[in-house]
Write a structure and sequence with these properties.
The protein has eight helices and 20 strands. The protein has 399 residues and is an alpha+beta fold. The chain is elongated.
Length: 399
């Protein structure tokens, strides 16, 4: 039995330039609006005990999706099937009456979730204790800080023993002590087999709490699947966007003109595994080999020099650089058709998009004969390390 089934959910908003346009549309029976697609054909299924992280930039449709799942918003099209009791922590204070006290809002919110008066009476003390609001529970919610509202909202949502728990970004305004309490409670829910949907800009929390994830981009499902794979893809995209780049497979870039006008150039660059198979996807810690073929325009001329390699991430941050000169190799006498390899027996970089930048220089490594980007290749890992590189390490924990 599924806990939650989402089929082709879409949400469309009509955007009017002014209130007068809305009236004109009614009277003249002609459209005076533009259409904004907040969600487009989003689908997924969750079983009891599944935990789904939701990520994406602001305006991607995350909150719209959660409101539809919590049934506080109707989709324009598509279907939603929910099994069991749902509790949701969405926009800060959205379900509170600001004139009511915290205690009165406990009854209001718990009743909306579906609890009876007797059930609320039985849970009220636990809700108040978890919120740590003390005497403030008797005061109007309009006098609460944002952090106090989160305390109350989370305490109510998680104290009613829901089958499905939906958490939006609101936890980010809480203090560190209460955030830890919230995470601990969500971990309890996870161990108890509850279904959790967790939306956050904290990719670390999503990684730790969620078994699966969905990345929304402009209202569409960009990627859904195992959490770390989705996080890796999203992080790559964010880095590229922040850098203002659109990395594409590199063609030859020859200083001073096309290939035929250069004394030597690269016929091709290949990125392969240890068996020589060209690949676009590698795992951290596996063998990666960069191969290239040199072409010389006039075989009667002899050219000697060095080869330099730069390893770049997709935001053009250089990860490392190597040259035959730095490695104390003698100058290479280049010949037509010559092939050169550079091997990485245990590729240390963590998940991301990368490319090599190859430079052929003179024997002093001062003048560049030719340079070229490789195609972009991908690295993935599933062991949870953070950062850029996998460091060899060893623990020694003494009693």
């Amino acid at each position: 039995m599924t806990a939650l089934e989402v089929k082709n959910i879409s949400k469309i908003y009509k955007i009017y330039g002014s209130p007068a346009h809305r009236v004109k549309e009614i009277v003249l029976k002609r459209p005076f609006h533009t259409v904004f697609h907040a969600l487009r054909d989003v689908s997924f299924t969750l079983l009891p005990g599944d935990t789904l992280g939701i990520m994406g930039e602001n305006g991607a449709g995350k909150s719209t999706l959660l409101k539809i799942l919590a049934k506080t918003l109707k989709p324009t099209s598509g279907s939603l099937t929910v099994t069991g009791r749902v509790a949701a922590l969405l926009e800060l204070g959205a379900a509170f009456n600001p004139e009511f006290s915290g205690e009165e809002n406990i009854y209001l919110n718990a009743y909306l979730i579906g609890l009876s008066r007797d059930e609320i009476d039985a849970r009220k003390d636990d809700i108040i204790a978890f919120s740590e609001l003390g005497d403030f529970i008797k005061r109007p919610v309009k006098t609460y800080s944002s952090g106090m509202q989160v305390r109350l909202a989370f305490s109510i949502a998680t104290s009613v023993n829901p089958d499905i728990l939906i958490i939006d970004e609101a936890l980010s305004v809480g203090d560190q002590h209460f955030q830890k309490k919230c995470v601990d409670r969500m971990m309890e829910f996870k161990r108890a087999g509850k279904t959790i949907l967790f939306c956050s800009h904290s990719l670390y929390l999503i990684q730790e709490l969620c078994g699966r994830a969905i990345w929304l981009k402009q209202g569409k499902t960009e990627k859904i699947g195992e959490t770390l794979a989705v996080i890796n893809a999203y992080s790559d995209w964010v880095r590229e966007k922040d850098a203002g780049l659109h990395i594409k497979d590199g063609g030859a870039k020859a200083p001073g003109g096309p290939r035929s006008e250069n004394p030597l150039w690269l016929e091709w660059i290949k990125i392969t595994d240890e068996e020589g198979r060209e690949k676009e996807l590698f795992n951290t810690g596996r063998h990666v080999k960069l191969s290239m073929r040199i072409r010389v325009g006039d075989s009667r001329n002899r050219y000697s020099g060095h080869v330099g390699i730069g390893l770049h991430r997709n935001d053009e941050v250089i990860m490392s650089g190597f040259t035959t000169k730095m490695d104390n190799l003698p100058p290479v006498t280049f010949r037509d058709g010559q092939e050169i390899d550079l091997s990485f027996p245990c590729f240390p970089l963590l998940a991301g998009q990368y490319y090599f930048f190859v430079v052929i220089t003179d024997e002093y490594a001062l003048h560049s004969f030719f340079h070229q980007k490789s195609s972009v290749f991908f690295v993935e890992h599933f062991t949870g390390e953070l950062g850029v590189v996998k460091m060899d390490h060893q623990w020694n924990i003494r009693p």
